[in-house]
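Re: duplicated header lines in exported structure tokens

Our pipeline writes sequence and tokens for each protein into one text file. With two proteins the header for the second block appears twice in some exports. Here is an export where it did not happen, for reference. First protein block:
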Amino acid sequence: MVPKPQNAAVQSVTHRPLPPLPKLRVRRPNKPETNPCLGIMSSVLGCWASSGKTAAAQGCAQLEQKLRQCMDAPRDNNPKKNNINYHLSRMYPNIVGPHKRK
């Protein structure tokens, strides 16, 4: 550790305030969901890679069955839309606080 000289003044860094936001908003809140079977599929592929072709039918059968069940499961075609932007627009006046009208 280097000792500081006694006469050295501490320089304060001044930060400019951020410009005001016209509104709070999350970009693209409705991202598509990842495939729920992706983890099981990677496990099956890892099992096949590690066991080779001869033992793949015996050791990986249970994982393959789980993958089949996951792929055959029904999917929701109408995903629920995210309502974060609605709540942010409601809360924005409370976050910004009172301001003067011109």
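Second protein block, exported in the same file:
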Amino acid sequence: MRYNEKELQALSRQPAEMAAELGMRGPKKGSDEAEPVGALLLERCRVVREEPGTFSISFIEDPERKYHFECSSEEQCQEWMEALRRASYEFMRRSLIFYRNEIRKDPLEQFGISEEARFQLSGLQA
């Protein structure tokens, strides 16, 4: 995926929805770093529970390449997994489609009032 480096830097300075220090191991053994060395773009990825208190992110194009994260508790692990799933492009796209379809629904149909019945009622008032 292509991205604009300046835009990525600007995004990194915005307030975070969630923040915590998590242990991380990259795809290569022993690749722990003291400082951030990059970003993971959450597109076409899977977030999976591994061992208790840990989860991983892998990408559909290369499922063997996993980024492992260690949390301080099961609750924190669950919160991060859910937040990462909600942050993905696929989740946002599905949500947009769902809400777009909900908006198009006629709210009176849930009460059994069809468009035809409404037309007849409006004719009686005239």
